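Hey Z.,

So I finally got round to the protoporphyrin IX containing FE thing we talked about over coffee. Here's the setup:
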Amino acid sequence: MSLSQLCGIGILSVLVLWKMFGGSSRKYNIDLDGPKEVHWLTGNVRKVFEGGLDYCMKIAEQYGGAVKLQSLYGEVVYLSDPLALYHVIMKDQHFFEEPDVFIMNNKMMFGDGLIATIGEQHRKQRKLLNPVFSTSNMRELLPTLQSIAHKLTSIVASKLPDDGSYKEIDMLPLLSRTALDGVCQAILGYPSNTLESAENDEYTEALRKMSSPLISKLIYFRPIVPVVMRNFSSYWTTKLVELVTMPWIPTERMKDVREMRRIIELMDNGSKKAFAEKKAASETPATLSPTAMQSEVDGLYSGRRKDMMDIMLKANSASSSSEQLTDGELLGQMNVMVFAGLDTTTSALSRCVYLLAKNPLAQARLRSEIRDALKRLSLLQDGSSFSEHGSPLLHLSYDELINLPFLDGVVRETLRLYPSLPHMVRNVLKATTLPLQFPVRSSSGAEISSIAVHEKSFVIISILAANRNRTMWGDDANEWKPERWLSSPEGTNRPGTDVPSDGAEVLSTKLPAPILGVKDGIRYPGVYSNMMTFLGGSRSCIGFKFAEMEIKQIIAALVLHLHFVLPTDPDANGYIKEIQWKMKAFHTPVVKPPAGDGESPAVPLNVRLVQEEDFKW
Ligand code: HEM
Ligand SMILES: *[C@@H]1O[C@H](CO)[C@@H](O)[C@H](O)[C@H]1NC(C)=O
Ligand SMILES: *[C@@H]1O[C@H](CO)[C@@H](O)[C@H](O)[C@H]1NC(C)=O
Ligand SMILES: CC(=O)N[C@H]1CO[C@H](CO)[C@@H](O)[C@@H]1O
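And the result:
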């Protein structure tokens, strides 16, 4: 694609936006301090999404909980102040909506699921879906994740040399397939098997490709979508899309659009088919044909289990007709949940495994905690070996798994320091004043404890800066310290301490975890341990309990059987691979040059089967 074409599309979308947002009349003058170096056209907000983690932390540290940035569309406020965030996502949530571009693009890609609706329709969907994600439903979904974790562990183990030596394995593709199987099997009830099969079927392949990198390639087209969708009927929108994606437009950008269109169609076709099957099955339980009955029995033996769609359909048909969701909305939820649960979980899983490889003591401590729990629950005979390929299934119950203190610390600490989604954007629907917990400086340098935000302007919720604020989390906020989440830092779970033989003791022996992220009674409004990783309020992550359970199950199964270290051996050219995490809109792990290309996502780790010494910390 030539530069002029790129400029053409760029200018087009600028003009569209210019018009959409009221053009040059929108020169806000937010009375707030912020970095002075500003690009004449694009401002400096891009640095937040392109300058990496350091830039974000630098401005939050320098200017405080509210920072003024410049964007193409006018001034935006970069927020991490606890009180201001409470107003944005909870108290005044109706004035701070998801940007129209986000909602309409999601609607186009996924249909009417949670991330594509606002207002009353969104409220209605949440009301029906919140109970679907209850703890008791999570308990039912765990077995599916256990068998995925088991499969992953066995696959990695089968690649390793028998003599117990290390082998380098890129964990990223494996973990992303794990997350894909997780959403497919536990949420959709779709019998995917991307971990084991060399090639994905069309549907799972479409789900995999429907990811952030492809979407970010379409950045120039995204602003146009709401304008088209709001101004044309769906018939004309379809016609327009067909016209635009005709093969005679030969540019690279158009190839991306065509690819996206194809993926949306594949996903849509597959979801419709899976949904129709589910629906048919749920509507005719009483009249099972003999063959269906047989397969039901087979299903039980081969581990066919309940999934989120079953629970959702059941909840829907049990609701009064005014509360029910349409088939289109239910279908939309399927697509939305796969999308919302895939890259986010992959990112968290790979960061967690990487951090454990980097911190051998934490890894050993975690491993020993898990083994002790198994022993305590008599799920493990003393002396049984871990270094066999046929590794035992890690089948702690939901409550045992969720309450392992150190595992909990590892997962919380990883999600705090490296939130999968570091930023969320909100559009100000009505001019309002945001109070601040901690004063900042105005444009003229005066101390101010509130800021006036203008109608149609944007605020950026800095999940990252909130989760790392030293005032709120302590001076070591930027360090990865799982033990900060333990009631007594020197832990009660050391090997050799009294191990109750009765499994029922597990819960009662756990001391309450300390409450972090609170200062003088002030806390962040997050749904998960006062951190903002899953946000809070009515648009918080509906899947956070599922994500927590999935990450814990996968990490625990991996660490129990496998030992991970960072790469240590020089390659043919004498370079040792060093993993570098780039943060743009998402976190991407790459291998730093010269050992790697610095571009392709990868998490190469040295892996071997565990030995007795790997339990000592
Ligand atoms: C580590 C993993 C995850 C992280 C960090 C995460 C984070 C988030 C965040 C920050 C939001 C708010 C987005 C916004 O304001 O627009 C969100 C929303 C959402 N998440 Fe997650 N998520 C994770 C996993 C999952 C999983 C596994 C599922 C599916 C089961 C899921 C389903 C959703 C849905 C449906 C929404 C939209 C909620 C709404 O708008 O009402 N997420 N998530
Ligand atoms: C933490 O919050 C305080 C008070 O809002 C602020 O002054 C400081 O700059 C913040 N620090 C970081 C690292 O975000
Ligand atoms: C999706 O289904 C429609 C109708 O069944 C079919 O015409 C179309 O080719 C399918 N799309 C893809 C990409 O397979
Ligand atoms: C005539 C019409 O419906 N115009 C709409 C086109 O789309 C923009 C952006 O969404 C709306 O603001 C207009 O009202």
